[in-house]
Amino acid sequence: MPRSLLPAALLLAFALPAFAQTAPPAAPPSPGPAAPALKLSGAEWKVTRLAALSAIEGEAPSLSFGKDARVSGASGCNRYMGGYTQDGQSLTFTELAGTMMACPPARMELEQRMLGALGEVTGFLITPGGALELYGAAGLLLRAER
């Protein structure tokens, strides 16, 4: 390489990495190698935050995970039930079904958002404070507490 091009090549080699961009994580952070097993069953989780809703008025939706890989709860208007698969921090819900009672429009919208969020879940995290956070491809979908 000619000597006159060497400074330009070095400058380019060191400057390019400074302009690299990385996307923010859409999945829950990794707990690290020493993380304890994450237990979902044993208590009812009350939803405190649901994607794009600033507040949940009235009775909060809920989730109850059974040891038999079944999930059930209140979806805002009706009750729902179905299956779930957990592998480490990976989580998916399957075959969700529910009752079909009519409710006021605000409760029906809450229910649609709740069931829609459950259908998008791909992973979860239990925070240091003990809250359950469910994640999908777009990031945090819902947060619940015992």
Write the layout of secondary structure elements.
Layout: H1 6-15, E1 44-50, E2 62-65, E3 70-74, E4 79-87, E5 90-98, H2 105-120, E6 123-126, E7 132-136, E8 139-145
Question: What are the key terms here?
Answer:
eight-stranded antiparallel β-sheet; 8 strands; META domain-containing protein; alpha+beta; 146 residues; Lipocalin
Describe this structure in words.
There is one protein chain. With 146 residues, the chain is α+β, with helices and mostly antiparallel strands. It has a single domain (38-145), classed as Lipocalin. It is 18% helix and 34% strand. A hairpin with a 4-residue loop joins strand 2 (62-65) and strand 3 (70-74). The radius of gyration is 22 Å and the shape is globular. 21% of the residues are buried.
Number of strands: 8
**CATH architecture tag:** Beta Barrel
How is the biggest beta sheet arranged? Answer: 8 strands, antiparallel
CATH topology: Lipocalin
Series of H and E elements? HEEEEEHEEE
Give average pLDDT, whole number.
80
Taking pLDDT < 50 over at least 5 consecutive residues as the criterion, the unreliable ranges are 5-25, 31-37
CATH class: Mainly Beta
Pfam family, one: META
Protein name: META domain-containing protein
Domain DUF306: 39-139
Keywords: Signal
Quick overview of this protein structure:
With 146 residues, this protein is an alpha+beta fold. The protein has 2 helices and 8 strands, in the order αβββββαβββ. Keywords: Signal.
